[in-house]
Specification:
Layout: E1 2-5, H1 12-28, E2 33-36, E3 40-43, E4 46-49, E5 52-56, E6 59-64, H2 67-82, H3 89-92, E7 99-103, H4 107-115, H5 123-134, H6 153-161, H7 169-176, E8 182-187, H8 193-207, E9 213-217, H9 222-237, E10 248-252, H10 262-269, H11 286-297, E11 306-311, H12 319-328, E12 329-339, H13 354-358, E13 363-368, H14 376-387, E14 402-404, H15 408-412, E15 415-420, E16 427-432, E17 444-448, H16 452-469, E18 477-481, H17 487-502, E19 503-504, E20 509-510, E21 513-517, E22 530-534, H18 536-539, E23 544-550, H19 560-570, E24 573-581, H20 586-597, E25 602-605, H21 609-612, E26 616-618, H22 626-639, H23 643-653, H24 656-672
Length: 673
């Protein structure tokens, strides 16, 4: 059974009845999807919430309290289904009694109806009905490419693109439930973080057009994508009205002279001169510094600008921005941010803990463990390379580069233990479920070429081979240059090689073009018939079916941030990824080979707490709750006369990073008192 819903807008008795029905369905192991407290129905200028709708191969069972409700619900479901041409024939077939109704209080009749073995729908019909009611049918574009080669890579891409998309229970709840507190959403690349943020924003605007909302992002090239996504999602809820864009903003975090940003909008509102990078050239955390400076200037002003702030790529922001965002919220406003610690690219960026951002205020944790974009083969290989799980020293001993400090994070991002213990200093083997069926057999290719020209020639040859013989289009491909300093020069050399080979004399057209996405052309990422050529900083947040990562040799193989960049670049790919360089590639090749031979499992000895102190750590352990906070305060009070013992205990149990956080919280507590 799949459960989608929210009890908050249902009466106590209705919620109790539905709870009993859910428990009975689970006990009887009935295969169905149940919606409760959703969807919102707007008919005849009135709004209401459908109490309960159950979809199975027996059809659609709608629960209601009155004949009037039955009429309203029936009209809404019919309208929803008829609006979807793919499935509208189901209700046009008079032989099928697709929609049935039952009194919400008659639990016995409801269960008898569900237990009938009539099966008028296929499993695909059920999935499509669920997707239509979720408003999730158009999460991906329909792929209408012409297939010329049987079982080509393009045909596999088309099959996956045209599969029915359904939000899972966690995703659905994140979008549609009533938001009573701040929230942070953790998920790997491809888990749907951006989709959820934008769709929730669209739903909230549909429900309450007066809400003032802003969507903030780190990568400028995301702007084009999220704006189009918002409009598409809004039109799924409201076909006949346009969104009120005076209430909705999509802003880069900083902004520049040609484009407003979240920071610059606030500066403009209070007639404060916007600082540029040149003004803080001597600061390691440049954006954090300008945010803290602005906060100091407006500390006595009640801003109250936004009802909701949505933050994407939150791992790239430091505490200064978070504090500025909270300052910009209205008193009842909500801050919702999405992050993946492993994708942090900047040395100066240390993602702040929940407690350092919110203090004693509540913030809900939402974990998205399933990756729907990136196949297991690419994702696990990317994690192995990103962390250096199988990297070794010259003597063959382990030489990890990065590690997740909080062991619970592994399960939160979708890994499960198959052998050993997920404990400091113990051997462990981790794996993850694979939810993607349509994929290619050679999804990860790592190569070392003689020189950069040979590297570019290989990539050009491979691109044209894919386009000519594998039903791949230029829009399927992205090129990420890890040599960001020389991006423009690299692009000119690459484009020259490609254009010499891409002209089709028979049809007299270019087989493909390549477009540079740099600081001067940061917003228009996708152009029809063209392949974006960009840096990891501008590729982050975007995706492609096939990704070519070039010039990996320009990075140090042992560097923490080198490994993070390779991980982030690899996880842009939905089907296939190439990693190329001209030297120092053998370690990556060997590590990927171990992952493949280990059936895409990660087997390693978890570092001890002492060892973690000597390496770069991700997802640091933090104080989890207000109760923990109170316990630490009590501990401090009891041991305040023996600071040496207190420090020794905390170092042993928590590590230095968390101690600093505790001290900060104690200082805040003393100030409040």
């Amino acid at each position: 059974m799949r459960k989608f819903g929210d009890f908050s807008e249902l009466s106590e008795q209705t919620a109790k009845n539905i709870g009993i029905i859910i428990a009975e369905i689970e006990r009887a192991n009935i295969d169905c999807s149940i919606f409760y407290g959703y969807p919102l129905i707007e008919l005849d200028n009135t709004s209401t919430i459908m109490k309960c709708c159950i979809i199975s191969q027996n059809g659609i069972l709608i629960l209601n309290d009155s004949e009037q409700e039955q009429k309203v619900y029936h009209r809404h479901i019919l309208k929803t289904i008829l609006d979807c041409q793919t499935i509208s024939d189901l209700v046009m077939d008079s032989k099928n009694k697709l929609i049935q109704f039952k009194d919400c209080n008659n639990i016995k009749d409801i269960l008898e109806e569900l237990n009938k073995d009539i099966k008028i729908l296929s499993t695909q019909d059920v999935d499509l009905l669920v997707a239509v009611i979720q408003k999730a049918f158009n999460l991906s574009k329909f792929d209408n490419r012409q297939i010329k080669v049987s079982n080509s890579l393009g045909s596999i891409i088309k099959r996956r693109n045209n599969k029915i998309n359904i939000l899972d229970e966690e995703q659905f709840q994140t979008i549609y439930k009533t938001q009573t507190e701040h929230a942070r959403i953790r998920g790997l690349a491809g888990s749907g973080k951006t989709i959820l943020l934008v769709k929730k924003m669209a739903y909230l605007h549909y429900r309450n057009p007066e809400l003032k909302m802003v969507y903030v992002f780190y990568t400028i090239s995301l702007k084009q994508f999220v704006e189009k996504l918002f409009y598409k999602f809004y039109k799924e809820f409201e076909k006949y009205k346009e969104p009120d864009m005076t209430k909705i903003s999509f802003l880069h975090s900083w902004g520049n002279k040609n484009m407003d940003g979240f920071y610059s909008i606030i500066c403009k509102k209070f007639n404060i001169v916007r600082k540029t990078i040149g003004d803080v050239y001597n600061k390691s955390d440049k954006f954090g510094a300008v945010c803290m400076d602005l906060l100091e200037q407006i500390k006595n002003i009640d801003i109250g600008m936004y009802d909701y702030i949505f933050l994407d790529e939150a791992q790239d922001f430091t505490l200064g921005f978070y504090k500025l965002a909270l300052k910009a919220l209205k008193p009842t406003g909500k801050f919702i941010y999405a992050y993946d610690e492993l994708q942090s690219l900047n040395v100066e960026t240390k993602m702040p803990s929940k407690n350092s951002i919110f203090g004693k205020k509540k913030c809900e944790d939402i974990n998205l463990p399933i990756c729907y974009r990136t196949p297991k083969e690419i994702l696990v290989t990317a994690h192995a390379l990103g962390l250096g799980i199988y990297k070794t020293k010259e003597d063959g001993s382990p030489d990890m580069v990065n590690m997740i400090q909080d062991t619970a994070t592994w399960e939160a991002i979708g890994y499960e233990v198959v052998e050993g213990q997920l404990t400091f200093g113990k051997p462990v083997t981790l794996t993850r479920k694979d939810v993607i069926d349509d994929k290619c057999s050679d999804s990860v290719i790592i190569l070392e070429k003689l020189n950069e020209e040979e590297q570019y020639k290989y990539v050009c040859h491979e691109i044209l081979e894919l386009i000519e013989n594998q039903d791949v289009s230029p829009e399927d491909i992205m090129i990420i240059d890890l040599d960001s300093i020389n991006l423009n020069d690299d692009f000119l050399i690459f484009r020259k090689i490609l254009t010499e080979r891409a002209w089709d004399e028979t049809s007299e057209i270019w087989k493909c073009n390549v477009n540079l996405v740099n600081k001067d052309n940061a917003i228009k990422f996708r152009i029809n018939g063209s392949i974006p050529f960009t840096t990891i900083f501008r590729a982050k947040g975007n995706e492609a079916n096939i990704v070519f990562i070039i010039n990996a040799h320009k990075l140090q193989s042992i560097s923490t941030y080198t490994r993070n960049r390779i991980f982030t670049a690899m996880t842009r790919a939905r089907f296939k990824v190439y990693l190329l360089g001209t030297s120092n590639m053998q370690s990556y090749i060997n590590e990927a080979e171990i992952v493949r031979n280990n059936d895409y499992k990660l087997s390693f000895v978890y570092p001890t707490k002492a060892e973690l102190q000597t390496m770069s750590t991700i997802a640091k352990t933090e104080i989890q709750s207000a109760k923990d906070y109170e316990n630490f305060i009590d501990l401090f009070k009891h041991l305040k006369n023996n600071p040496a013992l207190l420090k020794e205990i905390l170092v042993e149990q928590l590590g230095v990073g968390v101690i600093e956080e505790i001290i900060e919280l104690m200082q805040e507590n003393n100030e409040e008192e």
